[in-house]
Amino acid sequence: MSAGTWPLFLLAAAVGAVARYLIDRAVTARRGDGFPWGTTLINVSGSFVLGLITGLGLYHAFPGDARLVLGTGFCGAYTTFSTFAFETVRLAGEGRVGAAARHVAWNTVGGLLASASGLIVAAL
Amino acid sequence: MDDLPVDPDAVAAARGRPLDRRVVAAVALGALPGAAARHALAEAITAPAGHFPWATFSTNVSGSLALGLVLAVLLQRYPPATYARAFAGTGFLGAFTTFSTFSVEADVLIKDGHAAMALAYVVASLTAGLGAAGLGLAAGGRLTGRRPR
Fold it and tell me: A80, A50, A9: which is closest to B40 by C-alpha?
């Protein structure tokens, strides 16, 4: 990464993480069922955007530094695997095994379909 | 695994507590080293096309282990550790680990004709990631002296 890209990369990562915190907080407040809808929404939407950015790089020569800032920086920090894993374990630990399985299914299937959609849209 | 720590963030949000700007700042500050470390690891462990994405895999598994450990300790022993949790958990480990790179890598493996590798990657990441989070949580509980019932 060039020296001039680093500050933008870090800024994008900070914006991504704060967006995750704010969206998770807003969604959690709205939904009172204890299911981690916030993380699900974040991981699915972020996977779509990264699929789009990756596809633009593959099919339209979208510049590498922009992909680094928006993809690795923003999308990477916006989406999260550790919170997803922790929430799943917590649901299972509370005896809500069905909810834990749904959390895994929503994030994994949703994330894979969303990033595939992004790649396909970029290829058009 | 019963008697798990309550999530203070969820409780605060559900009660409509106003947004604490210092928490937002802690999340942003934690994200800086988190994303930089993820990028550095990705640069250090490069995988040729069609190979197992070890960099993201190790990032996500180690980050899940660390988050389980950190949250077990912070939420249990120091219940109001709001800023430490925002910095280390939501900020650092949240930005260190990534879901979007994981799903795009799996899709690109499928697109390039490596469906079996993609399946192995997804199954391995889920198994190891969830196992690591559970292990971290259990280890953190032991550190803080929480006895399994």
Answer: A9
Contact criterion met (CB < 8 Å) for B4 and A93: yes
Domain borders along chain B are: 19-144
- The predicted-structure confidence for A100-120, as pLDDT tens digits, reads as follows 999 999 999 999 999 999 999
CA Rg value for chain B = 17
B107 and A112 in contact by Cβ < 8 A? yes
ipTM: 0.95
Contact (CB<8Å) A89/B134: yes
Q: What angle do CA A115, A2, A19 make, to 5 degrees?
A: 40
Cα of B80 to nearest chain A Cα, Å: 17
Give the pair of three-digit tokens for residue A88.
């799943």
Taking only the tens place, the pLDDT of each residue in A8-25 is 999 999 999 999 999 999
- The confidence score (pLDDT) of residue A72 equals 97
Average pLDDT, chain A: 95
Phi and psi dihedrals of A7, rounded to 5? -60, -40
